[in-house]
Amino acid sequence: MDAEQLREYGHKMVDFIADYYKTIENFPVLSQVEPGYLRNLLPDSAPNQPDSFQHVLDGEVAQLILEFIRLHIQAKILPGVTHWQSPNYFAYYPSNSSVAGFVGEMLSAGLNIVGFSWIASPAATELEMIVLDWLAKMLKLPEDFLSAGQGGGVIQGTASEAVLVVLLAARDKVLRRVGKDALEKLVVYASDQTHSSLQKACQIAGIHPENCRLLKATSSTNYALSPEFLSETISQDLTIGLIPFFLCATVGTTSSTAVDPLLSLGKIAKSNGMWFHVDAAYAGSACVCPEFRHYMDGVEVADSFNMNAHKWFLTNFDCSALWVKDRSALVQALSTNPEFLKNKASQANMVVDYKDWQVPLGRRFRSLKLWMVLRLYGLENLQCYIRNHIKLAKHFENLIAQDPRFEVVTPRIFSLVCFRLLPVRNNESHGNKLNHQLLDAVNSTGSAFISHTVLSGKYILRFAVGAPLTEEKHVNAAWKVLQDKATSLLAESL
Ligand SMILES: *Cc1c(COP(=O)(O)O)cnc(C)c1O
Protein backbone atom coordinates (compact mmCIF):
# COMPACT_ATOMS: atom_id res chain seq x y z
CA MET A 1 0.00 0.00 0.00
CA ASP A 2 2.09 2.81 -1.34
CA ALA A 3 0.68 6.21 -0.41
CA GLU A 4 1.85 7.97 -3.57
CA GLN A 5 0.59 5.18 -5.78
CA LEU A 6 -2.75 5.40 -3.99
CA ARG A 7 -2.88 9.13 -4.66
CA GLU A 8 -2.38 8.62 -8.41
CA TYR A 9 -4.66 5.61 -8.76
CA GLY A 10 -7.26 7.13 -6.47
CA HIS A 11 -7.44 10.45 -8.33
CA LYS A 12 -7.66 8.70 -11.68
CA MET A 13 -10.35 6.35 -10.44
CA VAL A 14 -12.40 9.18 -8.94
CA ASP A 15 -12.11 11.03 -12.26
CA PHE A 16 -13.32 7.94 -14.04
CA ILE A 17 -16.26 7.51 -11.67
CA ALA A 18 -17.22 11.18 -11.94
CA ASP A 19 -17.16 10.90 -15.73
CA TYR A 20 -19.23 7.76 -15.45
CA TYR A 21 -21.94 9.63 -13.58
CA LYS A 22 -21.79 12.44 -16.13
CA THR A 23 -22.35 10.11 -19.04
CA ILE A 24 -24.43 7.44 -17.32
CA GLU A 25 -27.40 7.97 -19.64
CA ASN A 26 -25.34 6.82 -22.63
CA PHE A 27 -25.48 3.22 -21.40
CA PRO A 28 -28.44 0.85 -21.73
CA VAL A 29 -29.90 0.92 -18.19
CA LEU A 30 -30.40 -2.83 -18.13
CA SER A 31 -27.28 -4.65 -19.30
CA GLN A 32 -27.98 -6.32 -22.65
CA VAL A 33 -25.26 -9.01 -22.51
CA GLU A 34 -25.92 -12.75 -22.81
CA PRO A 35 -25.18 -15.16 -19.93
CA GLY A 36 -21.50 -16.15 -19.85
CA TYR A 37 -20.39 -13.12 -21.87
CA LEU A 38 -17.38 -12.43 -19.66
CA ARG A 39 -15.84 -15.92 -19.97
CA ASN A 40 -15.03 -15.15 -23.61
CA LEU A 41 -13.36 -11.89 -22.70
CA LEU A 42 -11.11 -12.97 -19.83
CA PRO A 43 -8.29 -15.55 -19.67
CA ASP A 44 -8.86 -18.87 -17.89
CA SER A 45 -6.43 -18.15 -15.11
CA ALA A 46 -4.85 -15.17 -13.42
CA PRO A 47 -1.61 -13.86 -14.94
CA ASN A 48 1.76 -14.71 -13.42
CA GLN A 49 3.12 -11.30 -14.28
CA PRO A 50 1.32 -8.01 -13.63
CA ASP A 51 -0.34 -6.35 -16.61
CA SER A 52 2.42 -3.92 -17.25
CA PHE A 53 5.41 -4.53 -15.07
CA GLN A 54 7.54 -2.03 -16.91
CA HIS A 55 5.18 0.86 -16.12
CA VAL A 56 5.61 0.24 -12.42
CA LEU A 57 9.39 0.07 -12.75
CA ASP A 58 9.32 3.29 -14.73
CA GLY A 59 7.11 4.92 -12.12
CA GLU A 60 4.33 5.49 -14.65
CA VAL A 61 1.66 4.41 -12.23
CA ALA A 62 -1.07 6.69 -13.57
CA GLN A 63 -0.57 5.22 -17.03
CA LEU A 64 -1.12 1.75 -15.63
CA ILE A 65 -4.46 2.54 -14.03
CA LEU A 66 -5.65 4.45 -17.10
CA GLU A 67 -4.84 1.46 -19.28
CA PHE A 68 -6.62 -0.83 -16.87
CA ILE A 69 -9.73 1.35 -16.92
CA ARG A 70 -9.76 1.52 -20.71
CA LEU A 71 -8.87 -2.09 -21.53
CA HIS A 72 -10.73 -3.85 -18.80
CA ILE A 73 -13.35 -1.70 -17.08
CA GLN A 74 -14.68 0.16 -20.10
CA ALA A 75 -14.33 -2.63 -22.62
CA LYS A 76 -15.35 -5.66 -20.59
CA ILE A 77 -17.08 -4.71 -17.38
CA LEU A 78 -19.36 -1.78 -18.21
CA PRO A 79 -21.26 -3.71 -20.91
CA GLY A 80 -22.18 -6.21 -18.21
CA VAL A 81 -23.29 -3.54 -15.74
CA THR A 82 -26.92 -2.70 -15.06
CA HIS A 83 -26.88 0.97 -14.18
CA TRP A 84 -28.68 1.26 -10.86
CA GLN A 85 -27.64 4.90 -10.58
CA SER A 86 -29.08 5.84 -13.96
CA PRO A 87 -31.94 8.37 -13.80
CA ASN A 88 -33.84 5.97 -16.07
CA TYR A 89 -33.69 3.16 -13.50
CA PHE A 90 -37.20 2.34 -12.19
CA ALA A 91 -36.86 -1.38 -11.42
CA TYR A 92 -37.09 -3.31 -8.10
CA TYR A 93 -36.32 -0.68 -5.49
CA PRO A 94 -33.59 1.92 -5.73
CA SER A 95 -30.09 1.50 -4.32
CA ASN A 96 -28.99 5.06 -3.76
CA SER A 97 -25.57 6.58 -3.95
CA SER A 98 -24.64 10.14 -3.10
CA VAL A 99 -21.48 12.19 -2.81
CA ALA A 100 -21.57 11.99 0.99
CA GLY A 101 -22.32 8.26 0.93
CA PHE A 102 -19.60 7.67 -1.62
CA VAL A 103 -16.85 9.55 0.19
CA GLY A 104 -17.91 7.91 3.45
CA GLU A 105 -17.54 4.55 1.75
CA MET A 106 -14.13 5.64 0.48
CA LEU A 107 -13.02 6.55 3.96
CA SER A 108 -14.27 3.23 5.27
CA ALA A 109 -12.30 1.43 2.54
CA GLY A 110 -9.29 3.59 3.28
CA LEU A 111 -9.17 2.92 7.02
CA ASN A 112 -10.12 -0.70 6.34
CA ILE A 113 -10.62 -1.64 9.97
CA VAL A 114 -12.41 -4.74 11.18
CA GLY A 115 -14.59 -3.60 14.06
CA PHE A 116 -15.84 -6.82 15.61
CA SER A 117 -15.21 -5.72 19.21
CA TRP A 118 -15.09 -2.28 20.74
CA ILE A 119 -11.33 -2.60 21.25
CA ALA A 120 -10.81 -3.43 17.56
CA SER A 121 -11.67 0.23 16.79
CA PRO A 122 -13.57 2.07 19.50
CA ALA A 123 -14.65 4.81 17.06
CA ALA A 124 -16.39 2.28 14.80
CA THR A 125 -18.58 0.87 17.56
CA GLU A 126 -19.28 4.18 19.25
CA LEU A 127 -20.09 6.06 16.04
CA GLU A 128 -22.45 3.29 14.99
CA MET A 129 -24.32 3.48 18.29
CA ILE A 130 -24.59 7.27 18.12
CA VAL A 131 -25.61 7.47 14.46
CA LEU A 132 -28.26 4.79 14.87
CA ASP A 133 -29.62 6.68 17.88
CA TRP A 134 -29.79 9.77 15.64
CA LEU A 135 -31.61 7.89 12.91
CA ALA A 136 -33.96 6.30 15.46
CA LYS A 137 -34.89 9.81 16.62
CA MET A 138 -35.45 10.97 13.05
CA LEU A 139 -37.86 8.05 12.64
CA LYS A 140 -39.45 8.79 16.02
CA LEU A 141 -38.82 5.25 17.18
CA PRO A 142 -39.82 4.64 20.80
CA GLU A 143 -37.08 5.33 23.36
CA ASP A 144 -36.65 1.64 24.17
CA PHE A 145 -34.88 1.24 20.82
CA LEU A 146 -32.14 3.72 21.81
CA SER A 147 -28.79 2.56 23.12
CA ALA A 148 -29.20 4.29 26.47
CA GLY A 149 -31.55 1.57 27.79
CA GLN A 150 -31.73 -2.14 27.13
CA GLY A 151 -32.00 -1.76 23.35
CA GLY A 152 -29.99 -0.21 20.56
CA GLY A 153 -29.24 -0.11 16.87
CA VAL A 154 -26.77 -2.01 14.72
CA ILE A 155 -25.85 -1.84 11.04
CA GLN A 156 -26.36 -5.13 9.23
CA GLY A 157 -25.35 -5.73 5.64
CA THR A 158 -28.91 -6.31 4.44
CA ALA A 159 -32.50 -6.62 5.61
CA SER A 160 -32.11 -10.37 5.12
CA GLU A 161 -29.40 -10.52 7.77
CA ALA A 162 -31.51 -8.32 10.01
CA VAL A 163 -34.50 -10.64 9.97
CA LEU A 164 -32.23 -13.67 10.38
CA VAL A 165 -30.55 -12.37 13.53
CA VAL A 166 -33.81 -11.31 15.18
CA LEU A 167 -35.40 -14.65 14.29
CA LEU A 168 -32.46 -16.44 15.93
CA ALA A 169 -32.75 -14.20 19.00
CA ALA A 170 -36.49 -14.86 19.24
CA ARG A 171 -36.05 -18.60 18.70
CA ASP A 172 -33.48 -18.98 21.44
CA LYS A 173 -35.50 -16.78 23.78
CA VAL A 174 -38.58 -18.97 23.46
CA LEU A 175 -36.55 -22.18 23.61
CA ARG A 176 -35.01 -21.05 26.91
CA ARG A 177 -38.56 -20.87 28.23
CA VAL A 178 -40.11 -24.02 26.77
CA GLY A 179 -37.07 -26.26 26.39
CA LYS A 180 -34.82 -27.07 23.44
CA ASP A 181 -36.87 -30.08 22.34
CA ALA A 182 -39.70 -27.78 21.26
CA LEU A 183 -37.92 -26.48 18.13
CA GLU A 184 -40.24 -28.51 15.87
CA LYS A 185 -43.28 -26.84 17.40
CA LEU A 186 -42.22 -23.24 16.82
CA VAL A 187 -44.35 -21.27 14.33
CA VAL A 188 -43.54 -18.09 12.38
CA TYR A 189 -46.25 -15.82 10.93
CA ALA A 190 -46.25 -13.25 8.15
CA SER A 191 -48.28 -12.43 5.05
CA ASP A 192 -47.53 -14.06 1.73
CA GLN A 193 -46.38 -10.60 0.58
CA THR A 194 -43.48 -10.67 3.05
CA HIS A 195 -40.00 -10.56 1.56
CA SER A 196 -38.53 -13.99 0.76
CA SER A 197 -35.70 -13.29 3.21
CA LEU A 198 -38.04 -14.37 6.03
CA GLN A 199 -38.41 -17.80 4.47
CA LYS A 200 -34.67 -18.08 4.04
CA ALA A 201 -34.17 -17.09 7.67
CA CYS A 202 -36.63 -19.81 8.74
CA GLN A 203 -34.69 -22.39 6.72
CA ILE A 204 -31.43 -21.34 8.35
CA ALA A 205 -32.95 -21.20 11.84
CA GLY A 206 -34.26 -24.76 11.57
CA ILE A 207 -37.93 -23.82 11.72
CA HIS A 208 -40.01 -26.77 10.49
CA PRO A 209 -40.89 -25.96 6.85
CA GLU A 210 -44.60 -26.42 7.53
CA ASN A 211 -44.45 -23.98 10.42
CA CYS A 212 -43.63 -20.91 8.38
CA ARG A 213 -47.14 -19.51 7.92
CA LEU A 214 -47.33 -17.11 5.01
CA LEU A 215 -50.94 -15.98 5.31
CA LYS A 216 -52.68 -15.00 2.14
CA ALA A 217 -53.18 -11.27 1.73
CA THR A 218 -55.65 -10.19 -0.92
CA SER A 219 -56.73 -7.14 -2.85
CA SER A 220 -59.53 -6.59 -0.30
CA THR A 221 -56.90 -5.31 2.17
CA ASN A 222 -54.60 -3.94 -0.53
CA TYR A 223 -52.35 -6.90 0.20
CA ALA A 224 -51.94 -6.13 3.90
CA LEU A 225 -52.05 -8.92 6.49
CA SER A 226 -55.45 -9.22 8.16
CA PRO A 227 -55.34 -9.22 11.99
CA GLU A 228 -58.46 -11.43 12.14
CA PHE A 229 -56.83 -14.01 9.89
CA LEU A 230 -53.67 -13.94 11.99
CA SER A 231 -55.64 -14.33 15.18
CA GLU A 232 -57.62 -17.29 13.86
CA THR A 233 -54.50 -19.04 12.58
CA ILE A 234 -52.71 -18.60 15.89
CA SER A 235 -55.69 -20.02 17.78
CA GLN A 236 -55.80 -23.07 15.54
CA ASP A 237 -52.08 -23.64 15.99
CA LEU A 238 -52.38 -23.35 19.77
CA THR A 239 -55.13 -25.94 19.91
CA ILE A 240 -52.91 -28.49 18.18
CA GLY A 241 -50.05 -27.82 20.58
CA LEU A 242 -47.82 -25.65 18.40
CA ILE A 243 -45.94 -22.65 19.78
CA PRO A 244 -46.41 -19.33 17.95
CA PHE A 245 -43.25 -17.30 18.57
CA PHE A 246 -42.50 -14.83 15.75
CA LEU A 247 -44.49 -12.35 13.68
CA CYS A 248 -42.98 -10.34 10.84
CA ALA A 249 -44.97 -7.37 9.55
CA THR A 250 -43.98 -5.15 6.66
CA VAL A 251 -44.27 -1.42 6.07
CA GLY A 252 -44.04 -1.20 2.29
CA THR A 253 -43.89 -4.72 0.83
CA THR A 254 -41.46 -5.38 -1.98
CA SER A 255 -44.16 -6.41 -4.40
CA SER A 256 -46.61 -3.52 -4.04
CA THR A 257 -45.74 -1.36 -0.95
CA ALA A 258 -48.55 -2.86 1.12
CA VAL A 259 -48.52 -1.66 4.72
CA ASP A 260 -49.48 -4.17 7.40
CA PRO A 261 -51.54 -2.74 10.31
CA LEU A 262 -48.74 -2.79 12.89
CA LEU A 263 -50.72 -1.91 15.99
CA SER A 264 -53.46 -4.54 15.72
CA LEU A 265 -51.01 -7.19 14.54
CA GLY A 266 -48.50 -6.29 17.24
CA LYS A 267 -51.10 -6.53 19.99
CA ILE A 268 -51.96 -10.05 18.87
CA ALA A 269 -48.29 -10.97 18.87
CA LYS A 270 -47.77 -9.52 22.33
CA SER A 271 -50.80 -11.21 23.87
CA ASN A 272 -49.33 -14.50 22.65
CA GLY A 273 -45.83 -13.81 23.95
CA MET A 274 -44.37 -13.61 20.45
CA TRP A 275 -41.47 -11.57 19.07
CA PHE A 276 -42.74 -8.85 16.72
CA HIS A 277 -40.42 -7.72 13.91
CA VAL A 278 -41.19 -4.85 11.54
CA ASP A 279 -39.55 -4.84 8.11
CA ALA A 280 -39.56 -1.35 6.61
CA ALA A 281 -36.56 -1.96 4.36
CA TYR A 282 -37.76 0.35 1.60
CA ALA A 283 -40.51 2.54 3.07
CA GLY A 284 -38.74 3.26 6.35
CA SER A 285 -36.93 6.11 4.62
CA ALA A 286 -40.22 7.88 3.84
CA CYS A 287 -41.14 7.75 7.54
CA VAL A 288 -38.65 10.52 8.34
CA CYS A 289 -41.33 12.80 6.83
CA PRO A 290 -44.07 13.62 9.38
CA GLU A 291 -46.81 13.06 6.78
CA PHE A 292 -45.71 9.43 6.28
CA ARG A 293 -44.71 8.57 9.84
CA HIS A 294 -48.20 7.24 10.62
CA TYR A 295 -47.50 4.17 8.48
CA MET A 296 -45.18 3.11 11.30
CA ASP A 297 -47.76 3.65 14.04
CA GLY A 298 -47.74 0.59 16.25
CA VAL A 299 -43.96 0.21 16.12
CA GLU A 300 -44.20 0.90 19.89
CA VAL A 301 -45.21 -2.73 20.40
CA ALA A 302 -42.48 -4.12 18.10
CA ASP A 303 -39.40 -5.91 19.39
CA SER A 304 -37.31 -5.02 16.37
CA PHE A 305 -37.45 -2.61 13.44
CA ASN A 306 -35.40 -2.52 10.25
CA MET A 307 -34.90 -0.04 7.43
CA ASN A 308 -32.35 -0.07 4.60
CA ALA A 309 -30.48 3.22 4.48
CA HIS A 310 -28.92 1.84 1.30
CA LYS A 311 -32.20 1.75 -0.58
CA TRP A 312 -33.79 5.18 -0.61
CA PHE A 313 -31.74 7.18 1.87
CA LEU A 314 -28.67 8.26 -0.09
CA THR A 315 -26.32 5.89 1.73
CA ASN A 316 -24.25 3.70 -0.56
CA PHE A 317 -24.80 -0.04 -0.30
CA ASP A 318 -24.52 -1.72 2.17
CA CYS A 319 -26.17 -0.19 5.21
CA SER A 320 -29.22 -1.83 6.76
CA ALA A 321 -30.24 -0.31 10.09
CA LEU A 322 -31.71 -2.66 12.70
CA TRP A 323 -32.98 -1.68 16.14
CA VAL A 324 -33.97 -4.00 18.97
CA LYS A 325 -35.55 -3.32 22.35
CA ASP A 326 -33.72 -6.16 24.11
CA ARG A 327 -30.15 -6.37 22.91
CA SER A 328 -29.41 -9.17 25.38
CA ALA A 329 -31.65 -11.48 23.32
CA LEU A 330 -29.38 -10.96 20.30
CA VAL A 331 -26.24 -11.38 22.36
CA GLN A 332 -27.50 -14.56 24.00
CA ALA A 333 -28.19 -16.09 20.60
CA LEU A 334 -25.05 -14.93 18.80
CA SER A 335 -22.19 -14.34 21.22
CA THR A 336 -18.98 -16.29 21.45
CA ASN A 337 -16.02 -15.44 23.63
CA PRO A 338 -12.82 -17.05 22.37
CA GLU A 339 -9.62 -16.50 24.29
CA PHE A 340 -7.92 -14.61 21.46
CA LEU A 341 -10.57 -11.88 21.56
CA LYS A 342 -10.67 -11.38 25.33
CA ASN A 343 -9.93 -7.85 26.51
CA LYS A 344 -10.47 -5.72 29.59
CA ALA A 345 -13.32 -3.55 28.27
CA SER A 346 -15.34 -6.52 27.02
CA GLN A 347 -14.73 -8.66 30.10
CA ALA A 348 -15.87 -5.82 32.35
CA ASN A 349 -19.06 -5.47 30.29
CA MET A 350 -18.33 -1.81 29.73
CA VAL A 351 -18.79 -1.82 25.95
CA VAL A 352 -20.87 -3.09 23.07
CA ASP A 353 -19.17 -5.75 20.95
CA TYR A 354 -21.12 -5.79 17.71
CA LYS A 355 -19.75 -9.22 16.75
CA ASP A 356 -22.44 -10.52 19.13
CA TRP A 357 -25.27 -8.77 17.22
CA GLN A 358 -24.62 -10.33 13.81
CA VAL A 359 -23.70 -13.54 11.96
CA PRO A 360 -20.07 -12.83 10.93
CA LEU A 361 -17.26 -11.85 13.22
CA GLY A 362 -15.69 -9.20 10.99
CA ARG A 363 -17.51 -5.99 10.17
CA ARG A 364 -16.84 -2.86 8.17
CA PHE A 365 -16.91 0.76 9.39
CA ARG A 366 -20.25 1.45 7.71
CA SER A 367 -21.48 4.09 10.12
CA LEU A 368 -19.07 6.60 8.53
CA LYS A 369 -21.14 6.87 5.36
CA LEU A 370 -24.47 7.09 7.19
CA TRP A 371 -23.00 9.73 9.49
CA MET A 372 -21.76 11.75 6.54
CA VAL A 373 -25.15 11.50 4.82
CA LEU A 374 -26.96 12.70 7.95
CA ARG A 375 -24.48 15.51 8.63
CA LEU A 376 -23.87 16.76 5.12
CA TYR A 377 -27.52 16.66 3.96
CA GLY A 378 -29.50 17.01 7.17
CA LEU A 379 -33.06 15.96 7.92
CA GLU A 380 -34.79 18.69 5.92
CA ASN A 381 -32.95 17.92 2.69
CA LEU A 382 -33.55 14.20 3.14
CA GLN A 383 -37.26 14.89 3.57
CA CYS A 384 -37.29 17.00 0.39
CA TYR A 385 -35.47 14.24 -1.41
CA ILE A 386 -38.13 11.66 -0.46
CA ARG A 387 -41.01 14.03 -1.22
CA ASN A 388 -39.64 14.80 -4.64
CA HIS A 389 -39.58 11.12 -5.60
CA ILE A 390 -43.11 10.65 -4.30
CA LYS A 391 -44.19 13.66 -6.34
CA LEU A 392 -42.64 12.11 -9.45
CA ALA A 393 -44.42 8.80 -8.76
CA LYS A 394 -47.71 10.71 -8.45
CA HIS A 395 -46.94 12.38 -11.73
CA PHE A 396 -46.41 8.99 -13.37
CA GLU A 397 -49.68 7.81 -11.84
CA ASN A 398 -51.46 10.79 -13.41
CA LEU A 399 -49.96 10.01 -16.80
CA ILE A 400 -51.33 6.48 -16.58
CA ALA A 401 -54.76 7.75 -15.59
CA GLN A 402 -54.88 9.78 -18.81
CA ASP A 403 -54.39 6.73 -21.03
CA PRO A 404 -57.47 4.43 -20.99
CA ARG A 405 -55.40 1.49 -22.26
CA PHE A 406 -53.64 1.29 -18.85
CA GLU A 407 -54.72 0.96 -15.23
CA VAL A 408 -53.12 1.57 -11.84
CA VAL A 409 -53.57 -1.72 -10.00
CA THR A 410 -53.03 -0.96 -6.30
CA PRO A 411 -53.25 2.42 -4.59
CA ARG A 412 -49.88 4.18 -4.75
CA ILE A 413 -48.60 4.91 -1.23
CA PHE A 414 -44.91 5.82 -1.57
CA SER A 415 -42.87 6.08 -4.77
CA LEU A 416 -43.84 2.77 -6.40
CA VAL A 417 -46.60 2.63 -9.01
CA CYS A 418 -48.07 -0.82 -9.79
CA PHE A 419 -49.84 -0.69 -13.14
CA ARG A 420 -50.57 -2.70 -16.24
CA LEU A 421 -51.78 -2.55 -19.77
CA LEU A 422 -55.44 -3.61 -19.66
CA PRO A 423 -56.17 -6.97 -21.26
CA VAL A 424 -57.93 -6.80 -24.60
CA ARG A 425 -61.54 -8.11 -24.45
CA ASN A 426 -61.05 -8.98 -20.75
CA ASN A 427 -58.85 -11.92 -21.68
CA GLU A 428 -56.77 -12.11 -18.48
CA SER A 429 -54.30 -14.76 -19.58
CA HIS A 430 -53.59 -12.87 -22.76
CA GLY A 431 -53.31 -9.73 -20.61
CA ASN A 432 -50.55 -11.38 -18.59
CA LYS A 433 -48.67 -12.28 -21.75
CA LEU A 434 -49.15 -8.78 -23.11
CA ASN A 435 -47.68 -7.13 -20.02
CA HIS A 436 -44.77 -9.53 -19.96
CA GLN A 437 -44.06 -8.64 -23.59
CA LEU A 438 -44.38 -4.95 -22.81
CA LEU A 439 -41.84 -5.28 -19.98
CA ASP A 440 -39.35 -7.03 -22.25
CA ALA A 441 -39.91 -4.56 -25.07
CA VAL A 442 -39.29 -1.56 -22.82
CA ASN A 443 -36.24 -3.05 -21.12
CA SER A 444 -34.62 -4.13 -24.37
CA THR A 445 -34.58 -0.51 -25.57
CA GLY A 446 -32.02 0.24 -22.85
CA SER A 447 -33.64 3.63 -22.32
CA ALA A 448 -35.51 2.65 -19.15
CA PHE A 449 -35.55 -0.28 -16.77
CA ILE A 450 -38.71 -1.41 -14.99
CA SER A 451 -39.58 -4.69 -13.26
CA HIS A 452 -42.70 -6.72 -12.51
CA THR A 453 -44.64 -8.63 -9.90
CA VAL A 454 -47.70 -10.88 -9.79
CA LEU A 455 -50.70 -9.89 -7.67
CA SER A 456 -53.75 -12.19 -7.47
CA GLY A 457 -52.56 -14.00 -10.57
CA LYS A 458 -52.18 -10.80 -12.58
CA TYR A 459 -48.85 -9.87 -14.17
CA ILE A 460 -48.19 -6.31 -12.98
CA LEU A 461 -45.55 -3.78 -13.97
CA ARG A 462 -43.68 -1.93 -11.23
CA PHE A 463 -42.40 1.62 -11.70
CA ALA A 464 -40.29 2.58 -8.69
CA VAL A 465 -38.99 6.14 -8.60
CA GLY A 466 -35.98 6.56 -6.34
CA ALA A 467 -32.71 6.95 -8.23
CA PRO A 468 -31.04 10.15 -7.03
CA LEU A 469 -30.63 11.55 -10.57
CA THR A 470 -34.23 10.98 -11.71
CA GLU A 471 -36.15 14.09 -12.80
CA GLU A 472 -39.57 14.63 -14.32
CA LYS A 473 -38.16 14.47 -17.84
CA HIS A 474 -36.91 10.95 -17.21
CA VAL A 475 -40.32 9.85 -15.97
CA ASN A 476 -41.94 11.40 -19.04
CA ALA A 477 -39.44 9.71 -21.36
CA ALA A 478 -40.03 6.30 -19.77
CA TRP A 479 -43.80 6.79 -20.10
CA LYS A 480 -43.37 7.64 -23.77
CA VAL A 481 -41.42 4.40 -24.34
CA LEU A 482 -44.12 2.45 -22.51
CA GLN A 483 -46.87 4.04 -24.61
CA ASP A 484 -45.04 3.50 -27.88
CA LYS A 485 -44.29 -0.14 -27.11
CA ALA A 486 -47.88 -0.67 -25.98
CA THR A 487 -49.15 0.75 -29.26
CA SER A 488 -47.02 -1.66 -31.31
CA LEU A 489 -47.94 -4.65 -29.16
CA LEU A 490 -51.66 -3.88 -29.32
CA ALA A 491 -51.47 -3.46 -33.09
CA GLU A 492 -49.77 -6.87 -33.37
CA SER A 493 -52.34 -8.58 -31.17
CA LEU A 494 -55.36 -7.38 -33.14
C1 LIG B 1 -35.47 -5.00 -0.38
C2 LIG B 1 -36.26 -5.60 0.72
C3 LIG B 1 -35.72 -6.60 1.54
C4 LIG B 1 -34.39 -7.26 1.28
O1 LIG B 1 -33.38 -6.39 1.32
P1 LIG B 1 -31.86 -6.85 1.44
O2 LIG B 1 -31.26 -5.72 2.20
O3 LIG B 1 -31.35 -6.96 0.05
O4 LIG B 1 -31.80 -8.13 2.18
C5 LIG B 1 -36.48 -7.05 2.60
N1 LIG B 1 -37.70 -6.56 2.83
C6 LIG B 1 -38.25 -5.60 2.08
C7 LIG B 1 -39.62 -5.08 2.39
C8 LIG B 1 -37.55 -5.10 0.98
O5 LIG B 1 -38.11 -4.18 0.20
UniProtKB/TrEMBL annotation:
InterPro entries reported for this sequence: Aromatic_deC, PyrdxlP-dep_de-COase, PyrdxlP-dep_Trfase, PyrdxlP-dep_Trfase_major, PyrdxlP-dep_Trfase_small, Pyridoxal-P_BS
GO biological process, one term: amino acid metabolic process
Gene3D superfamilies according to UniProt: Aspartate Aminotransferase, domain 1 (3.90.1150.10), dopa decarboxylase, N-terminal domain (1.20.1340.10), Type I PLP-dependent aspartate aminotransferase-like (Major domain) (3.40.640.10)
Signal peptide: none
A cellular component term, taken from the record's GO annotations: cytoplasm
Keywords: Decarboxylase, Lyase, Pyridoxal phosphate
Residue stretches spanning the membrane: none
Cofactor(s) the protein needs: pyridoxal 5'-phosphate
Domain of life, source organism: Eukaryota
Modified residues (N6-(pyridoxal phosphate)lysine): 311
Similarity comment: family membership: Belongs to the group II decarboxylase family.
Protein name stated in the entry: Tyrosine decarboxylase
